[in-house]
Amino acid sequence: MPVEILMPALSPTMETGKLTKWFVAEGDKIAAGDVIAEIETDKATMEVEAVDEGTLGKILIEAGAEDVPVNTPIALMQGDGAAEVAAAQGVSAAPAAVSPAPVVAPAPAAQDAPGSADPEIPPGTEMVSMSVREALRDAMAEEMRADDRVFVMGEEVAEYQGAYKVTQGLLDEFGARRVIDTPITEHGFTGLGVGAAFAGLKPVIEFMTFNFAMQAIDHILNSAAKTHYMSGGLVTCPIVFRGANGAAARVAAQHSQNYASWYAHVPGLKVVAPYSAADAKGLLKAAIRDPNPVVFLENEILYGQMFDVPKMDDLILPIGKAKVLRAGMDVTLVGYSYALVYMLEAAAALEEQGISAEVIDLRSLRPLDTETVLASVKKTNRMVAVEESWPVCGIGAELSAQVMERAFDYLDAPVLRVTGKDVPMPYAANLEKLALPNAMEVVEAAKSVCYR
Amino acid sequence: MPAKKAASRKGAEKKRKPPANKTVMTPENELSAYKSMLLIRRFEEKAGQLYGMGLIGGFCHLYIGQEAVVTGMQMAASEGDQLLTSYRDHGHMLSAGMDPRAIMAELAGKKTGSSRGKGGSMHMFSPEKGFYGGHGIVGAQVPIGAGLAFANKYEGNGKVSVTYFGEGAANQGQVYETFNMAALWKLPVVFVIENNRYAMGTSVTRAAAGAEELYNRGQAYGIPGEPVNGMDVQDVRAAGMRAVEWCRAGKGPYILEMKTYRYRGHSMSDPAKYRTREEVQEMRKTSDPIEQSRDRLLGSGIAGEKELKEIDREIRQIVNEAAEFAQTSSEPDLTELYTDIYVAETLNAG
């Protein structure tokens, strides 16, 4: 009785992958532990081992096939001792969390709202489709070409090509002087980066994720953010701290935290949290050129998502400017980073129910573009703030206070927040889903403030 | 201006060919070391007085007793080399050639202060003089100092970063993260452990395993280290020259453990219950760096009593002027509250 060998998943978020090669042919005897195939996603490559012994019957998916869905039968095993395959850990695999794009980013429905188009992008500019990951890489590469003082430092950024492949190719182009693998010592290399910035270099410090930046937060706050002030303007710290922030998938409490409001709290820092690839590119380039310390919060799940990016020689977007992604009249939805996925989906659903939602992507969290938010609220008279972070002292709480202080008379309903739940991130799939916000919660909150 | 004097003196020293035995100080070296140490001593005494009068607030950590350390090291370093330290930083700033008036005014929180009154005793900087702080978080300056060295190597400018920290900071985790990277990447950084025996009120023997050999703390990383009599400016300078030369030759970091002593409390508010009066008196009597220097000057005939008296008078004048300047300067304008948070005009411009 032939047994099916299924396409394995590298992570819970992986939906498809490429079957790069077969190491065995039809009719080959296979022993348990033999490497039989190699599969690849956009960020990792992994060898597939046989768990049991047997004979390879028929290959169902040829080598080189792309976008093979997880759990698709890729081969049949014959004869005695039906074999199974399992993903081998640590052969050539990437770190635990891997997330190829599970969703295609919803296209912004309307671009006609005031302030929706970036004036930096001339009308009619040609667009190219690009992942957030590639956009970030290109931003760093362009700035490194333009300025020898720019260098990238962090764990696995060089030879490994980036734990999430964001720095892919940089070592080849710029060499080990400017693309530097560090030991796993966030506290140390962050302080070292700050010192290099004091001396006039322009470091880009990558944290594999911002969860690990907690080891280094003293240097981000006390050394980087405050020294310009404490020196009466004599010392500057032109540095970028970047990496994945917030929830990925199934990595539990210590690897899922969103630190947006922690850094946005601190005078002396700028904080950026883009959603789209174009913003990721234009804002990272701006961050690298900025003479101040910038915390650049990325999102692991967005890394693989494709967006239109303007084909421009030097795309620089202003830090501190929000963007209206979708114009609307009835309610303002405001958020940042991955929350835009929920907001855009909710806006489409609300439209079907006759509610016109305006969607604002904050893009920067410090400075916070409250003007754009207030202008929108004065038009819609209702606001829902959305974020994956915890509710207490969050960005939504700050927006709510600002709107209350500065547009109280315009409000027709209390501001509502849709946030991650006030719990450490659970591991179990169903609990994790419950802990994160979703489009339906945004729809319900929007309807509620519209008294519908 | 004394700052200029110090700088030109140093420049002259650089140009002169080193003597055959570089570790032996010339008469000029002896005299210049004496003046530098005396300036620190008198400045700190004055700061202590002003603190007592309520003109200096917050924390104020005096360097009295440790003067030979930074003085000797600065003599070993070259123009352009960087230095940075913890919050016990007045001596380092004076030694780097910063204007005593601006330092004293900063202590007093005045607009004429080095940081325009916004940093205080612990937070002053002068990239122009190679001084990168003035750091209030114990140990934080250590990776920052290695970062300066990283930049030196990156740019191939031949400079060395002299990174000071106390024996208390020597127990901080980030120090060892820094040792590792500095050794791995052969960064030109001299780590100067100023072991004054007490981390606030905790003696080194109560806080550090292997307390007698902190200079060995880089051994696992292959960083050479040596103990130095930090109460004698000659010894400090000689060891500093070995260390700086090692770094400049591209051999990586070097550790010097300066065995030194602070006469005053950790800060101005120190109950001094953790050591005996006799211990302090004994150190002052037998090991004072300025007295040792003075004895050598007199003993070798480099200077007479009269000349030393004149030097003392000059230095008192510099310090009095600094104190006067600090007292008569105005407080910062209230608009200063919101300046220097970001590099000008970039808050919204990106």
Reported CATH architecture of the largest domain in chain A: 3-Layer(aba) Sandwich
Largest sheet of chain A: 7 strands, mixed
The CATH superfamily name of chain B is Thiamin diphosphate (ThDP)-binding fold, Pyr/PP domains
- CATH homologous superfamily caption of the largest domain in chain A: Thiamin diphosphate (ThDP)-binding fold, Pyr/PP domains
Q: Unreliable stretches of chain B, pLDDT < 50, 5 or more residues?
A: 1-20, 346-350
Category by helix and strand content of chain A: alpha/beta
- The helix content of chain B is 40-55%
- The largest sheet of chain A has its strands arranged as 12-11-13-14-16-15-21
What is the architecture of chain B at the second tier of CATH?
3-Layer(aba) Sandwich
Low-confidence stretches of chain A: 81-103, 109-115
Shape assignment of chain A? globular
What does this protein look like?
The complex is a heterodimer of chains A (452) and B (350). With 452 residues, chain A is of the alpha/beta class. Chain A folds into three domains: 3-87, RNA polymerase II/Efflux pump adaptor protein, barrel-sandwich hybrid domain (OB fold (Dihydrolipoamide Acetyltransferase, E2P), Beta Barrel), CATH 2.40.50.100; 127-310, Rossmann fold, CATH 3.40.50; 323-449, Rossmann fold (3-Layer(aba) Sandwich), CATH 3.40.50. Chain A contains twelve helices and 23 strands. Chain A has helices at residues 132-146, 170-174, 186-198, 217-225, 227-230, 260-264, 277-289, 339-352, 370-380, 395-407, 429-435, 439-449; strands at residues 3-6, 16-22, 29-30, 35-40, 45-50, 54-59, 65-69, 73-78, 85-87, 127-131, 150-154, 179-181, 202-209, 240-244, 270-272, 294-298, 306-310, 323-326, 331-335, 357-361, 364-366, 383-386, 416-418. In chain A, strands 12-11-13-14-16-15-21 form a seven-stranded mixed β-sheet, sandwiched between helices. A five-stranded antiparallel β-sheet of chain A has the order 7-2-4-5-9, with no helix packed on it. A five-stranded mixed β-sheet of chain A has the order 18-20-19-22-23, with helices on both faces. In chain A, helix 3 (186-198) packs parallel to helix 4 (217-225) and helix 8 packs across helix 12 (439-449). With 350 residues, chain B is an alpha/beta fold. Helices cover 45% and strands 10% of the residues of chain B. Chain B has helices at 2-15, 27-52, 67-76, 90-96, 100-107, 141-155, 173-184, 204-207, 233-248, 277-287, 289-299, 305-328; strands at residues 82-85, 131-134, 161-166, 189-195, 198-199, 202-203, 225-229, 254-259. Chain B starts with a helix and ends in a 22-residue tail after the last helix. Classes of the chains: A alpha/beta (452), B alpha/beta (350).
